[in-house]
Amino acid sequence: MNKPDDPRDTAATSSDDAGSATARNEDTTLGKMLRDGSLHHKAPQVLRERLRDELAQAERRAAAAQDTTASSADAVSTPKPEPKPEPKPSHSSNTSNVPKPSGKPVDLAWGSSLAPWLFGGAGGAILGGLAVAMALLVERPPVPAPTPDPQTPTGLQPQEIVSSHVRALLSQHPIDVVSTDQHTVKPWFNGRLDYAPPVVDLSAKGFPLAGGRLDYVGQRTVAVLIYHTDKHPIDLYVYPARDKASAAPMISGADGYAIARWRRNGMTYWAITDAEPSHLRVFVEALQAAT
Question: Could you tell me which residues are beta bridge partners of residue 232?
């Protein structure tokens, strides 16, 4: 007579069947795909050939770079020997002056050979420029001292005559001694100057004498004789000349005034007026004729 089934055996049998089913399911899905190579994809032939070409080019470039580095190292490590100078004959054989190998590294040797070329070229250019500049300074002739104008031996300038003339016209007393008599005007300067200015009467020529005054021009006190022409004053400055040689009259203009200057008989003359230059020229000719 058969015994009834044990419930524990029944449960164990059910669990074994479930595990077997799961194992079979995995065996037919993931495990099978991993084992049969269905997940493996083979690279195309074009990609294989491209990678092979790039690897070959990289190997060639590395080999060329290695050859270049090796040749450069050989050139630096084995410099070309320089020709040795022939020894000069001497009576004594002194070996202490023979230079010994310095044993310097290659980099130091190259630096010492380049330094004279770099710094020597710049230093030579600077020294050359300085030498040229010094030569120009040495060979340049000295600037001659300005020679005084023969017409202005005391350094008197036309602008100073203009200023003195205008200053007198603006003053309330442009004439110190008022007289048309030359014998009155000339003695008036005695004791006031260290020279006697020539005073002439030019009324017959159309230039009557009005008087005289003292003024300070050319760093000294000078005599000024005042004449008139058509109601225009003519100031005549007279003082001893440093250069005793005579000089012809020169007529110019400044600030609207006609100015004449000349030397005669050891005296320097300056004449200024606001009249026409032609009137001043006639006045100068008449004064020269009278002196």
Answer: 229
**Residue 235 in contact with residue 248, Cβ under 8 Å?**
no
**Paired strand residues for 234:** 227, 273
Upper half-sphere CA count for residue 98 (Cβ side, 13 Å): 8
- Look up residue 125 and give its two tokens: 């250019």
CA–CA distance, 268 with 197 (Å, rounded to integer): 10
- Does the pTM of the predicted model rise above 0.85? no
DSSP code for 127: H
Model confidence at 148, pLDDT cuts 50, 70, 90, reads: very low
Q: What is the pLDDT of residues 230-261, one digit of tens each?
A: 889 999 999 999 888 899 999 998 888 999 99
In this structure, are residues 259 and 270 in contact, taking their beta carbons and an 8 Å threshold? yes
DSSP for 155-207 reads: ---HHHHHHHHHHHHHSS-S-SEE-S-HHHHHHHTBTTBSS------BGGGTB
Tens digits of per-residue pLDDT, 189-210? 999 999 999 999 999 999 999 9
Q: Which of 247, 226, 209 is nearest to 164 (CA)?
A: 226
Rounded distance between C-alpha atoms, residue 228 and residue 279, angstroms: 10
Q: Which amino acid is at 122?
A: A
